[in-house]
Write a structure and sequence with these properties.
Elements: H1 19-24, E1 41-43, E2 46-48, E3 52-54, H2 62-70, E4 75-81, E5 94-96, E6 109-110, E7 118-121, H3 130-143, E8 149-154, H4 164-181, E9 185-189, H5 206-220, E10 225-228, H6 235-245, E11 251-254, E12 258-263, E13 275-280, H7 284-301, E14 306-310, H8 316-325, E15 329-331, H9 334-338, H10 342-352
Parallel strand pairs: 3-4, 3-15, 4-8, 6-12, 8-9, 9-10, 10-11, 11-14, 14-15
Antiparallel strand pairs: 1-2, 5-7, 7-13, 12-13
Helix pairs in contact: 2-3, 3-4, 4-5, 5-6, 6-7, 7-8
């Protein structure tokens, strides 16, 4: 089917429904022409047809992966999984916000009654049991086209009184399971703005992050490792992270949202005053700045580590800004959830430019 004949009214994540409902109601792939993006593109050492990917978040299971693969994305990141089942945070998990370009210094952000390109997310990194997600990853890889990359995001599930060695072992266990199930690359999530324990903020503890990364890399051997980090504004922090993680990481993915408290329509704090991660156009400029910051560090160090830009890209012009800042690939989440055709639109814009 041609792009012009494809309806804009395609299935998408239903924010009015629970996470479990959306997991169970994944759409089927569509048959649509994907315009070719000129150029030679790579991802973690693999040739790909474009720099377009989806980060951990929208792809709840294998059917969601195959759906977005059919819509022009070439790197598909299976939503973060754990060594044990974990329930999603209570609804609402997605709240539209009224925000321009955030810097990370904001005291709060008000919610909006309608979506204008940005929202606050709070899922809490839920997961089905390992036997379920391992079978699903194997099923997904067997059906995903050979020229598409399946990335699997994993996280450790810290327990009371755990040592960093025990947390690292849990990360490594999940990573090895993902690789064994067929993941082309494994991503470790060192940043979740809605989880306050160390498994959600590991990137802020450089030595611990380096240790966990090395243990995971040993567990997955030749499978490339991606490390997701959170919001960084200072060069010294970027330098420390690159130096600590480059021995293990093939790529660093950024930015995992910008977390701020959310105010309801009554002006009162939502979610008990806890922060929620803002995604979408409101974090685009800060995320591109961070990519440039890390890009400069990587260049100055002569590092082999690659960068994945994440945050607010909704047009091909945004993708170009990320690529010019030093990204090898650009992952799109919010725009893809709002408009499943966004990658097709980007590909067409690139082909016509």
């Amino acid at each position: 089917m041609s792009y012009s004949n494809l309806s804009d009214d395609l299935p998408r994540y239903q924010t009015s429904q629970t996470y479990a409902w959306n997991y169970d109601h994944a759409p089927d792939p569509v048959c649509v022409e994907n315009p070719t993006i000129p150029g030679a593109w790579t991802f973690c050492g693999r040739l790909v047809d474009s720099p377009l990917g989806v980060p951990a978040g929208p792809l709840l299971n294998g059917k969601w992966v195959l759906y977005y693969a059919s819509l022009g994305f070439d790197v598909l990141t299976y939503k973060t999984v754990r060594s044990g089942a974990r329930e999603c945070f209570p609804m609402p998990n997605i709240v539209p916000v009224d925000a321009l370009q955030l810097t990370g210094a904001e005291a709060s952000v008000p919610m909006s009654e309608s979506v204008a390109g940005s929202w606050a997310v709070g899922f809490g990194m839920p997961s089905v049991t390992p036997d379920v997600w391992r079978r699903d990853i194997e099923w997904t890889r067997s059906r995903l086209a050979a020229n598409k990359v399946l990335s699997v995001s994993v996280v450790g599930s810290v327990q009371p009184h755990w040592t960093i060695e025990e947390l690292a072992a849990d990360y490594a266990r999940c990573a090895a399971w993902a690789a064994g199930a067929g993941a082309d690359v494994v991503e470790v999530n060192f940043s979740c703005p809605n989880v306050s324990t160390c498994d959600g903020q590991l990137y802020q503890h450089v030595n611990d992050a380096a240790y966990v990364a090395s243990v995971v890399k040993d567990a997955i051997q030749q499978v490339p490792l991606i490390i997701k980090v959170g919001h960084v504004r200072e060069r010294a922090e970027a330098e420390a992270l690159v130096a600590a993680l480059e021995p293990s990481a093939a790529s660093l993915a950024m930015t995992n949202t910008i977390a701020v408290p959310i105010l309801g329509v009554d002006g009162k704090a939502m979610f008990g005053g806890q922060r929620r991660g803002i995604c979408g156009t409101a974090i685009r400029d800060a995320s591109i700045f961070q990519t440039q910051l890390f890009g400069d560090v990587v260049k100055d160090r002569g590092s082999r580590v690659k960068l994945i830009g994440v945050g607010g890209a909704s047009h091909w012009s945004d993708v170009l800004r990320y690529l010019q800042a030093g990204a090898e690939a650009v992952h799109v989440a919010t725009a893809a959830m709002l408009d499943p055709l966004v990658a097709i639109r980007m590909r067409r814009a690139a082909a016509e430019s």
